[in-house]
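Methods: example folding runs. The two proteins below were folded one after another, and each record is reproduced exactly as written to the output file, sequence line first and structure-token line second.
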Amino acid sequence: MQSILNETGFKRIAMVEFIAALHPILERKIDHILPELLGNGYLLSHFVHEALSFDRKLREEYLFVPHGRDHWEGIAQYALRSSSAFKAWQKTEKDCNYACDNG
């Protein structure tokens, strides 16, 4: 795939373009499952943990930054972009930390 891009003269990295092309699918999936996640704090917390791990892997292993941008916020940031999602996740994390500290 990279050789095809090179032959066309595009100065793009095939792996980065492939990953970027998959993001709209991930974002639609997140939009679809987020209401269910918000109803289950522990599931939301697990999802965010996995999303952060996924984001880290894309950044560190694949050096992923979409073409034309200086940085990439990540899938976890996308999922927590609304204040209600962020507050639900934050509450679950606080509750878990309290339970772990006092358990």
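Second run, written to the same file directly after the first:
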Amino acid sequence: MNGNELVFGIAAVIAVLSALGVVVSRSAVRSALCLVVTFFCLAVLYFTLQGEMLGVIQIAVYAGAIMVLFLFVIMLLDSGGGQGGEEGTDWKRYWGLAAGVALAMIILAYVLSPLQGETRPFAPEGYGSPHAIGRALFSTYTWPFETVSVLLMLGVVGSVLLAKRRLP
């Protein structure tokens, strides 16, 4: 195991633990901070896979701009207040846990099945370069790119409308 694989393994473990922190945390702000750690670990993973452009985009766009947007919406909605009394068993939590475990098992099966052989995946020439990303983003993935931007804008507008409705 060389240094690159060691850094990849450490960043992957931290990313998984911080992603679990996003899901498990009861505080929206702590969950958002765990998400920032996950985004930075994903950037490190991109760097170890020679995807420098993707790593820089991950830091600039997700860990920077998107997280500022998330924290703005969290503070605007002020959703960190106390919760009401328990009136019974919340079955949504158990159904969510069961679905999460099932999804993790499916993902693990898909990840482990190619690793049974000795062949290692390789990146084609120019993988992760700005030219390749730009060509893919604005030719193959134009529609999903624009759809995500519209959905993010709708989320911000919806949270502002919800917060405005609460004001006296």
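Comment on the second run: The helical segments are 3-24, 28-48, 52-77, 91-112, 130-140, 142-166.
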